[in-house]
Amino acid sequence: MFLTPNFFNNYLRERGLGNQIYAAMKNDDYSDVVMAALSVLEESGSLPTIEKENKCEKRSDKYREEGNIAFKVGNVYRTLEFYNRALMYAPKTSRAIKLAYSNRSAILFKMEQFSKCLIDIETCCKLGCPTDIESKLIKRKNEATKRSKLENSTASLLTSYFKDYFKFDLKSNTSIPCASSDIEVIKGDDFKIVAAKDIKVGTPLALEDSFVSCNNEKNIPFSCHYCHKMSLNLIPCEGCCLVLFCSEECKEICLKEYHSIECQIMEVIQSIAFSTMAKLMVKGTLKFVQMCGSWKKVISSSHCTGADRIRISSEQDMYDVNNKFSVLNFNDNRLFVHGSMHSASFVCATFIYYLERISGYLPSSFDERKLAKKALGRIMMYFSLYASPTPVNLRVSDTKNRKSFLNPISNHGWYPLIGKLKESCIPNLFVINLNKKMLLIALKPIKKGSELTVSHIGHYLLYDEEPHVRNSISFDLFGNVCNCIICTGEWKSQKKQFSLTEKQLNLYKERFLHEDVLINIMRIPNVFKKICNVLACLSDVSFSEEYVHVFNNSFFRLISAYQEFVCANVVFDRIR
User: Fold this and answer.
1) What is the CATH number of domain 57-162?
2) Phi and psi angles of residue 97, each rounded to the nearest 5 degrees, phi first
3) Domain map (residue ranges) of the chain
4) Are strands 235-236 and 244-245 parallel, antiparallel or unpaired?
């Protein structure tokens, strides 16, 4: 067991070991405090003993049986969770994995997800369907095949409606491939992203992948480890018992980027990485090392992070997710970090201890291995203190209640462009979560030269939290508390004080007031353009009841329909 902070501090003081940590914290090199923590952990015998969990047919069968019980009492949420955990623990080609796929196909059939039911049946058959369940599976397959035809025709109809919706076909920015040429970067003492020309409401400005991302603990049994997608046909990692993927493609990419190493220490991550930041820190470090291609490059790169690197960086270094240096360019001007540094040093040291035990991962020579460990400590500590995670909230279809909802349980990721945009409680940009990707569109008319702003806490009309909750989130993400009209909640009392001009009122009544937008779904591009025109007209009265009405009942409803179609996130019930 890893010692608790209070017990551990007392332990250090009694043995005179604490001074090593505090002395190292005074140095500019982050690796010193991590190496000091590693030395203290080894000297005190306090390193946690964490055994790797191997695939286990007996453990898989236990989860499957629990799923069967949940199935009988009609708890579809728990049924899916248990069957997915059964898949996680089932050895490859074992009877357990075949039964897990077969049983999951049964709950998929019951929930009328016939196409997805057929996928699990096909997977079971490819693995070699057990003879004692073969006839039952064939019967289910025949029935699901008949019923899936209507399901497929409905999907084709929706595809035809949405194929051109939000088509990201603008000329790409030459410096930042994920961004539009409608934006440009101004570099002075720091970087600033501004409008390269006047931008209309609804204009797409970026479509960015995360560098790395991680699922919330509650989302793990229902989500892809790599792209966040909540799928009913998740497949297990073959190396560890804690990860699922939505497809073979995601699995292969994830293994290539970082999971081939992460997979070998998943139990360590599960045991000591309690925060989102710690999980992202490990993934980000592993991916960065992989992208460097050599320990020599890792070691040299680790000496230049934050403000030091920003001063010498290009636009690509700063904002391009495919550039390894983009994650070393988070601002490191945060105050009061020594408490976080002390706690993080032991977490970073523990990971380095276990990475050193992966055969062939670190250099073989003593001197180079020492430099590599210091580089890992330097990068991990920098990530722990300064790499700000961006919340990711997905639109999810609830098949049990035939509704969709915005999942309140946030995942997180590092976005080198979107994550570094100026934070504003009243932003001019709107972020649309598309699983691992984020789409950025203009929410207000933006004049040429104006700085682009986002709200990482969430738009105030969608995340209507009490002020103390919003302030708490702000402090966690940015280390400060805002006192603006949004964060104090004062804007709510001012809604009726905003009066529209005659032009605004006429446009609102003429184009929006009595219309249900979703009735016009077959004219989505025109409907969306019309909504954006109304939002633009009302942008100077964005606290008015009319603006709130257009935003919530029209703009966001269409955005939600788009998210639901593009992301295809599905669960059997609301995440609990």
Assistant:
1) 1.25.40.10
2) -70, -35
3) 57-162, 178-210+415-456, 211-391, 498-576
4) antiparallel
Name the region of 437 (left: φ>0; alpha: ψ -120 to 50; beta: rest): beta
Question: How far is the CA of 236 from the CAs of 94, 214, 220, 318, 428, in angstroms?
Answer: 13, 16, 12, 35, 41
167-205 tens-digit pLDDT:
556 678 888 999 999 999 998 878 999 999 999 999 999
Q: How far apart are CA 135 and CA 16, in angstroms?
A: 70
Q: Nearest to residue 262, comparing CAs of 151, 323, 351?
A: 351
Per-residue pLDDT of 73-109, as tens digits, reads 999 999 999 999 999 999 999 999 999 999 999 999 9
Structure-token pair, residue 316: 């690509």
The helix/strand/coil state of 184 is: strand
- Tokens found for residue 24: 């190292």
pTM score, two decimals?
0.90
- Whole-angstrom distance, CA of residue 241 vs CA of residue 239: 7
- Please give the CATH superfamily to which domain 178-210+415-456 belongs: SET domain (2.170.270.10)
Strand arrangement, sheet containing 204-209: 204-209, 437-442, 429-434
- Dihedral of CA 163/166/171/173: which sign? negative
Structure tokens at 95: 């009877």
**Tokens 């080609």, located at residue:** 93
Q: Would you say the C-alpha torsion 541, 547, 552, 555 has a positive or negative sign?
A: negative
